Amino acid sequence: MKRSPKLTKQKIVGAAVELFDSQGFDGTTVRQIACKAGVNVALISYYFKNKKGLLEWVMVDYYEGMFHRLDACRYDSEWESLSELLHSMAENMVRFQCESYRVTRLIQRELSVESMLGREIMSTYLARLKHYFAAIIEEGITEGEFPALEVNGIVIQLLAIISFPYSYPQIIREVFYLEPLDERFVEQMICYTSDFLRQMLTPINTLR
């Protein structure tokens, strides 16, 4: 039975992510990816041009998926305050990174190395992510919902809390003896993130 082009691409991407995660990008060959995916090597060139093109596709698809979730929070969901919106966005980011933990870790590894692709990802997607959260916090400060704080510092801390467990899951397992993919851990991370937002963005005169 002939495999559909969509399914073939999914098999190639799945194999590539697994191998990039376990062996590293440089340690993985196109032939290994094709073998694991059960496809002809030529199909990788056909769909992605080369190994770098495949990595770029994986990274772009990851961030587009993330922003699809964040956009749904902002534009397709009902929220009564900017605080509620931020909590929803943070929860969705935690869950998204858990669901895509292999790619989350892979991207963190690749961004730690100086490269043209890394710079493009940072200038396109990470800058957009920073702006996404910063704009909401700045709007909350302007409207008086949030106290006047240094916005960049809040965003840096928030993204660090959300990303660390899934960028470095081995540290969570080996140092903290916790399983980052366990639903109880995910719920804990959502609570930690919500507590951070509440403590940082609740005006002092309303804290109890």
**Structural Rg:** 19 Å
**Cα distance spanning the termini:** 65 Å
- Count of runs of 4 or more consecutive helical residues: 10
Strand tally: 0
Features:
elongated, 0% strand, 208 residues, 76% helix, mainly alpha, single chain
Report on this structure.
It contains ten helices and no strands. The model has no long low-confidence stretch (mean pLDDT 93). The protein has 208 residues and is mainly alpha-helical.
Concise summary:
With 208 residues, the protein is an all-alpha fold. Helix content is 76%, strand content 0%.
Task: Please specify the SSE layout and strand pairing.
Elements: H1 5-23, H2 30-37, H3 41-48, H4 51-75, H5 82-99, H6 101-111, H7 116-143, H8 151-167, H9 169-174, H10 183-201
Helix pairs in contact: 1-2, 1-6, 3-4, 4-5, 4-7, 5-6, 5-8, 5-10, 7-8, 8-10
